[in-house]
Amino acid sequence: MNGQSSFKAATKKPGARIGRERVENTLRISEEQYRVLFQINPQPMWVYDLETLQFLAVNDAAIEHHGYSREELLAMTIKDLRPPEEVPRLAEYLPRAGEGLNLWGEWRHRKKDGTEINVEITFHNITWLGRPSRLVLVKDITDHKRALKALEDAEQKFRSIFENAVVGMFQTTEEGRLLTANLALARIYGYESPGDLMRSVNNINKLYVDPPGRAEFLRRLSERGAAWGFEAQHYRKDGSVIWVLESARAVRDSTGKVLYFEGSVQSITDRKRAEETLRELSGRVLQLQDEERRHLARELHDSTAQDLSIMARNLRRLSESRSLDPGVDKILSETLEMAEKCTRGVRTLSYLLHPPLLDEVGLVCALGWYVRGFTQRSGIRVEVVTPTEYRRLPGELERTLFRIVQESLTNVHRHSGSRTASIELVLDTDRVKLEVRDEGRGIPCETLKKFHAGGVGLGVGVAGMRERVRQLGGRLDLESNGSGTVVRATLPLQGARA
Ligand SMILES: Nc1ncnc2c1ncn2[C@@H]1O[C@H](COP(=O)(O)OP(=O)(O)OP(=O)(O)O)[C@@H](O)[C@H]1O
Ligand SMILES: [Mg+2]
Fold first, then answer.
1. Is 447 close to ligand 1, i.e. is its CB under 6 Å away?
2. Which of 12, 127, 235, 323 is the most buried if burial means most Cβ atoms within 10 Å?
3. Three-state SS at 175
4. What is the pLDDT of residue 3?
């Protein structure tokens, strides 16, 4: 037991001495480390005398940052670091210091090279070498401020574009509640200001004259994430109806969830009106053209062809009299032949201008007659499929279908190089469908593109067909590739004139 306790006592004494040394060492190391922490701190730091405002200590970062040497700084006061206009404010602030950490906010410093920087000042009041002093931490916020300013400028720029745009712009929730609107949007709908619009229209779905149109717009938005150039009719504040061109896209978060929709609205009422006038005008031109053709056809048939056939009959009579000498007889028979050829030519021309069969017995007969003549003239074999129980259609519709066949077969002959063609006429309860096919070289890509883009720059043939079809509320489609072309017209039975 004794031996044990003496061992403890023997081991205790040196242990206590080692412990005290360790504490003293730790304290000494701490002071050293605190000094190092101040010296190598990446943020500029300094200590200044509260009475003289003289720098008492500066760290490496301050020297590096402000560009003065340690000696220079230690010979300066904190006033020397400020542009002159900041000095009065400094004097005002100096007495304002509380216990603990003080945040003094934003200041301007001038570096040795004259550049000014924006800094944020934080400090503690301390005693340094027995003198009341301040330990200051300086944070350079020049870049941060510049970035903030750039952001504000950009924000201001885009706000100005948004507010002064001539196009209506909006943001809405998925359900249709307006989140943002610009002045142009308000004006389009007849409101004084965006605020006025947003207070009155709580849901933009209600602006649509045709609700299924809105549903279609939303379907495109959700399927493709965007819908561009969507035409719709909307109500204005006063209840009048306008045409608008709407585009929008869905803005999503990182998980793909829709945050809101944003887009633009343009009033296209004037354009629509102009298009309507143009359509009426081209309808009238086509109608006049038909009337003119019919008139010419009748004139040629009833007058010129009649006169020619009388002339031919008289010539025949003359040539039958035997009193003529052989020379005159030869001239006479040549003239007779020519007169008969002219009569046939004028009749054909008259029928092509306006086939009498079309008015008298209807489209199917007129097509049969026309196709036979076409095959004779061109050598192209044409297969015709028509409904077995064909009932007469309104005159306008039959004339349009006939003209489409006429123009399409002329194109087959002129452009396709095909030796065959086919015509199919299908009659449904509410619409009629006509297809003219060939097996030729196809419509050149560029021409086809122009057709799909709306038709500027095409020949009169295709454009005329499309216009005739549009006049009757139908549509004309062209399908074409290297192995042939299909012209397809679909027309509603309702609404055409007799
Ligand atoms: N069946 C076809 N096969 C190949 N190309 C065709 C066919 N139909 C039309 N095209 C092409 O489309 C173009 C436009 O046809 P469109 O009928 O409008 O004009 P066009 O026949 O050239 O002149 P026109 O105004 O006298 O009809 C043609 O020039 C031709 O290049
Ligand atoms: Mg043509």
1. yes
2. 235
3. coil
4. 37
Ligand 1: residue of 422, 443, 456, 486 to mutate (most ligand atoms within 8 A of CB) is 443
Ligand 2 centroid–CA 414 distance in Å is 8
Instruction: For residue 10, report the distance from its CA to the centre of ligand 1, in Å.
Output: 119
Which CATH homologous superfamily contains domain 39-139? PAS domain (3.30.450.20)
Exposure string for 285-294, b = 16+ CB within 10 A, e = fewer:
ebeeebeebb
Using the structure block, give the residue that is written with the tokens 């542009």: 83
**Alpha carbon distance 426, 267 (integer Å):** 40
The predicted model gives 162-177 an average pLDDT of: 93
Which ligand is closest to the CA of 457, given by its number?
1
Residue 5 — pLDDT band, cuts 50, 70, 90? very low
pLDDT tens digits along 48-76: 999 999 999 999 999 999 999 999 999 99
> How far apart are the C-alpha atoms of 231 and 244, rounded to whole Å?
6
Q: From the CB of 434, is ligand 1 less than 6 Å away?
A: no
**Are the beta carbons of 234 and 241 closer than 8 angstroms?**
yes
Residue nearest to atom 27 of ligand 1 (CA): 461
Q: In ligand 1, which atom is closest to the CA atom of 416? A: 3
In short, whether 459's Cβ falls inside 6 Å of ligand 1 is yes
Average pLDDT over residues 452-457: 72
Q: Once rounded to an integer, what is the mean pLDDT over residues 455-467?
A: 80
Which is more confident, 1 or 21? 21
Domain spans of the chain, in order of start: 39-139, 165-267, 274-354, 361-498
Interval 222-231 mean pLDDT: 89
Domain 361-498: CATH superfamily is Histidine kinase-like ATPase, C-terminal domain (3.30.565.10)
What is the rounded distance in angstroms from the CA atom of residue 246 to the CA atom of residue 360? Answer: 49
Closest ligand 1 atom number to CA of residue 487 = 1
pLDDT of residue 410: 95
Among 300-309, 310-319, 371-380, the range of highest mean pLDDT: 371-380
Ligand closest to 485 (CA) is: 1
CA of 408 to the centre of ligand 1 (A): 8
CA of 498 to the centre of ligand 1 (A): 30
What are 189's two structure tokens? 């709908």
Cβ 473 under 6 angstroms from ligand 1: no
442 lines ligand 1 (CB under 6 A): yes
Domain pair 39-139 / 361-498, same fold: no
406 CB under 6 A from ligand 1?
Answer: no
CATH node for 165-267: 3.30.450.20
Q: Which amino acid is at 202?
A: N
Tokens representing 99? 């216990």
* Residues with Cβ within 8 Å of residue 420, at least 6 apart in sequence: 380, 381, 382, 383, 438, 439
Q: Which residue, by CA, sits nearest to atom 5 of ligand 1?
A: 443
Please calculate the CA angle 66-67-70 and round it to the nearest 5 degrees: 95
